[in-house]
Amino acid sequence: QKEVEQNSGPLSVPEGAIASLNCTYSDRGSQSFFWYRQYSGKSPELIMSIYSNGDKEDGRFTAQLNKASQYVSLLIRDSQPSDSATYLCAPSKDSSYKLIFGSGTRLLVRP
Amino acid sequence: GAVVSQHPSWVICKSGTSVKIECRSLDFQATTMFWYRQFPKQSLMLMATSNEGSKATYEQGVEKDKFLINHASLTLSTLTVTSAHPEDSSFYICSAALRPNTDTQYFGPGTRLTVL
Q1: Is B11 touching A (CB cutoff 8 A)?
Q2: Do A104 and B43 touch (CB under 8 A)?
Q3: Is 70 exceeded by the pLDDT of residue A94?
Q4: Region A16-26 average pLDDT
């Protein structure tokens, strides 16, 4: 079992739709969870972090965390073609602050 | 805020030579920096964790004598790829964390290394 599982995609949605990205993790000790966006050929950029169960909203982005189910998701509302990228889920690993990256989900927003 | 730079952004070198990559936190002090490597169409793989003033901690399978890491100040970490070979060609990315205040990592723009 991989430490972090993400559907590789591509997830294709029309412009203006809601994109839903999912991630499961195996380490029950993970306390911090991060979503990064990576455009082709570029380094990851932080979208948001979440630490507690429930929802956290930041602009068009909403992160959801369920530690009991070891599940974290990212919703992107009003998707734009510029959101087309690979989205990386990254739980932290125990107390070392290391991040364990999933393989990422490629999102394609169709104009 | 939380800007991380890397230099150079790309480098081409001959097999057998050494290459140094710099990672700087521009507007904050980073007690911990991380070095990653990413091959095409693969995810980021952590190579090592670098703490200011102490030896780096390498991940399993990463040769510490080949990938030399120095974190001499709170704003600068360097990665030296020694005796580079074509299989070392990759995208090297550093990140910096504002520990102990937060575990959020901010990434540099990356360095693309091509070894001929």
Answers
A1: no
A2: yes
A3: no
A4: 96
Helix (H) or strand (E) holding B71: strand B67-73
Q: How far is A57 from chain B (nearest CA, A)?
A: 17
Q: Which residues contact A69 (CB under 8 A, 6 or more apart)?
A: A24
Residues 6+ apart with CB under 8 A from B109: A42, A43, B4, B5, B6, B9
Reading the block at residue A111, the tokens are: 């104009």
Instruction: Say which residues have a Cβ less than 8 Å from residue B116's Cβ, sequence separation at least 6.
Output: B12, B13, B14, B15, B86
Which residues, listed in sequence order, are joined to residue B78 by a DSSP beta bridge?
A: B22, B70
pLDDT in tens, B31-68: 889 999 999 888 899 999 998 888 899 999 999 999 99
Q: Is B26 on the interface with A (CB under 8 A)?
A: no
Q: Over the stretch B68-106, which tens digit does the pLDDT of each residue have?
A: 999 888 899 999 999 999 999 999 999 998 766 667 899
